């Protein structure tokens, strides 16, 4: 079977030349920047929508939703190969009509389309829920760290007033280094070598030996240490270490008598203002001295713990939703591979 009934709208539209959609229309861009981007089909579910901007419109007796899934998976690369051009690629209706399609009967198309649509709706719901949780946490952090929202103790009494201190007053700090890369006996050992792009991960890409550790400025950090990326593409990123390992010179380890998750949350909340204050146009580096000079609030330890527990619960809910979302996306991908082989 081939694609018939393809129309092409014109790039320049006036009132008399507007093409209005019909339910079940499938549209594919007629021009774009890359071949793979242009090879994207969409099904129009509403009639009477003005279609412009240089589109190929497929009017077919097939189920438009199914056809969209089919073209975006089984035929995407074939469509991309049809597109021609350099700075701007073009896709013509005459080319699309050359596609060979292997479609099930209309009844099966409808079943598949309905099932995949239900999966997509669930993905959309989980995506929105995850985004709302992220927005909610951002708003709550704003209230907490501006002290608009205060917690109370077990007896319902107010906690003591917060005291602001420079971070240097309440912590110890150190950075690491990199063993000589020319020494093979310094590498491929058993010590995880944490780089600034690997903060908070459960493993590292590179490992060093005890000999490499002893003969370099690399320093060991513990599980639960707060790690801060000072420079590079990840400047300003921070995480609580999940592993014992050695850090390089781009990472600052921060140890304080504050609740670690409370401090992590505060520095994460202040991340953008820190970067804007100390990095010009995203260029430059942070330093240990800059981080030490930051003013941080110090509530009582009990209030810190309450704040940390509250934010941790939000994080766990966010992670749970994100995991469900990722699992559903993988499930859908597996279905598509099975259906459109």
TrEMBL record:
Family affiliation: Belongs to the type-I restriction system S methylase family.
Organism from which the protein derives: Candidatus Methylobacter titanis
GO molecular function, one term: DNA binding
UniProt xrefs under InterPro entries: Restrct_endonuc_typeI_TRD, Restrct_endonuc_typeI_TRD_sf, Type-I_RS_S_subunit
PANTHER family: TYPE I RESTRICTION ENZYME MJAVIII SPECIFICITY SUBUNIT, TYPE-1 RESTRICTION ENZYME ECOKI SPECIFICITY PROTEIN
Highest rank taxon of the organism: Bacteria
GO terms (BP aspect): DNA restriction-modification system
Type I restriction modification DNA specificity domain sequence ranges: 60-130, 161-329
Name listed for the protein in its UniProt record: Restriction endonuclease subunit S
Keywords, sorted A to Z: DNA-binding, Endonuclease, Hydrolase, Nuclease, Restriction system
E.C. code: 3.1.21.-
């Amino acid at each position: 079977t081939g694609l018939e009934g393809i129309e092409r709208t014109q790039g320049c539209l006036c009132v008399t030349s507007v093409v209005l959609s019909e339910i079940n229309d499938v549209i594919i861009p007629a021009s774009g920047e890359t071949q793979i981007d242009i090879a994207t089909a969409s099904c129009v579910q509403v009639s009477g929508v003005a279609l412009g901007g240089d589109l190929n419109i497929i009017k077919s007796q097939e189920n438009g939703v199914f056809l969209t899934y089919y073209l975006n998976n089984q035929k995407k690369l074939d469509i991309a190969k049809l597109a021609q051009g350099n700075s701007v690629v073009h896709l013509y209706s005459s080319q699309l009509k050359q596609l060979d399609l292997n479609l099930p009967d209309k009844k099966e198309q409808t079943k598949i389309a309905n099932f995949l649509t239900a999966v997509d709706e669930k993905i959309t719901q989980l995506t929105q829920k995850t985004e709302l949780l992220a927005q909610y946490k951002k708003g709550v952090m704003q209230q907490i760290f501006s002290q608009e929202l205060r917690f109370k103790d077990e007896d319902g009494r107010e906690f003591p007033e917060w005291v602001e201190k420079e971070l240097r007053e309440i912590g110890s700090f150190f950075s690491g280094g990199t063993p000589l890369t020319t020494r093979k006996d310094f590498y491929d050992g058993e010590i995880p070598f944490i780089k600034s792009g690997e903060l908070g991960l459960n493993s590292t890409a590179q490992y060093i030996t005890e000999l490499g550790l002893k003969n370099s400025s690399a320093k060991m950090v513990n599980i639960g240490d707060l790690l801060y990326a000072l420079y590079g593409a990840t400047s300003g990123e921070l995480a609580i270490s999940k592993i014992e390992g050695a850090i390089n010179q781009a990472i600052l380890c921060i140890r304080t008598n504050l609740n670690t998750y409370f401090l992590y949350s505060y520095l994460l909340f202040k991340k953008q203002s820190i970067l804007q204050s100390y990095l010009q146009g995203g260029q430059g580096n942070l330093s240990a001295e800059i981080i030490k000079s930051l003013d941080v609030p110090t509530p009582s330890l009990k209030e810190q713990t309450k704040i940390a527990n509250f934010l941790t619960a939000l994080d766990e809910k966010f992670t749970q939703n994100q995991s469900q979302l990722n699992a559903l996306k993988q499930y859908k991908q597996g279905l598509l591979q099975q259906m459109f082989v």
